[in-house]
Every structure is written in C-alpha cells, then in structure tokens.
Amino acid sequence: MLLVFSASAQLKPFNASLGFNWNGTQRVPNEIPTAFFNDVNFASQYDFYSTLNRVFSEYGVGFKGNRKNIYFDFSVLQGTDYITSYHSDYFNIGDTSYIKSEDYDVSSALIGLRSAVRVSTPSDQRFVVHYSFGVEGLLAYDVDAGGQAVIRESDFSRSNEARTYIDPSFYGSYGNANIVQNVGLAFKFGKDETKYPLNKAYLESDFQLLNNFTFIDGTASQYRTFGLILALGYQF
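Now predict its structure.
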C-alpha cells in the first residue's frame, strides 16, 4: 500500500482495455442459498449441488509509475451473478417409488471496481507475461430468485406429479469483497515498426484465483473461485 501512495502522484496512463471476465465455483457455501430461502435447510441435504457463476464486461485502464515493469490497474466491472442449487432424492410410499427434485435459482445484476498492482516482463516485447494482486468490490442488485420442488413417480410419469413453487425470503442487494490474483499473457499484434497501425494493440488472457467474501442479509460467507479474462487492449 505504501508503494501505491508513493507512486500515485507520478502515475501516467499506460494502457486501456476492454474484456470479458468469468469466474465461478461448484463449492458454494450453504449460507449463500440459505440467505435467499430461509425455509430450506440446505445444510441438512448432503447431496445438494450448488454452483456460482459470474460474467462481466470489464473496462480497464493501467498506469505506470517510477518503478520499471510495475503498473497500477483499475477496472470497472458490469455483469450478472448466477447462483443455482439442485437436490434430488428417492423415497417409497407403499409399493410405489417416487423422486423428489428441488431447484433454486438466483440471478442479480453486478457492478463493481477492481484495483491491482501488476508486475510484468518488459512491455516493449511482443509477448509479455504478468502477475497482479489486488482487490475488488461488487454490488449485486435487481435480485431475481425462485425455487420449485417436484415430486413424481420414479418412472417419470407426469400423471401423478406434484409441483410446489418456493418464493425467496430475501430480495435485497448484497455485496462481495474479493482478493484477486491474476497470472496472464499478452500478445501484441504489431512489431516494432512505428508505421504499423496495430503496433501497440494486444490480446490478453488471464487466469484468476479469487478469495471471496459475500455479505447477504447479515450473513457472511468465505469461499474461493477461479476465473478467466480475455481482453483486447491498447498501449499508449
């Protein structure tokens, strides 16, 4: 942090980018779906399968300070959060076997900011490898949630199907604070020829590791997600 403050007065614009960012996990803590559906005991169902996916558009700008090959990146994130939970179970009533399936879905709009310190190989090369460490804050709003439970005979006959719709217990906004690490590669389209129009344009691909802290309706959850970034950028 001291490095950021000491260099902030002498930062110069270095690059701008527009990209696509995805991150997700298949190990969602039970506290997250439970926050939206208080009447469902997700923790008691060992075979509940929950996933989380986030999809962003990313608008970034990078700055260069006094130190060589060290940059400061800032991004605006806009996208959607998807949380799904699924459970199925078999049971018998007399001589008849039944299957019960439960589906719960939550989607919300996302907006946020990310800041990071990036270290890279020399930027005047055509291939540039970099690593960055930073933080991001996300606000989820416009929440749309719902669930349903379906009971039918195990032969999937619809004649004896019973369907129940479950309304969410929480509709409000919620927040995420994430610690982000990126490892990536950038490839410049042009060579070291000043007349080439795409000399400073580049394609970037990153792998992400994120430690997530989600705050929903007074509850806090910590978990890890993995992500990918694909971006098109221009170096000033």
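Residues 2-84+106-139+174-235 form a domain with the Porin fold (CATH 2.40.160.20).
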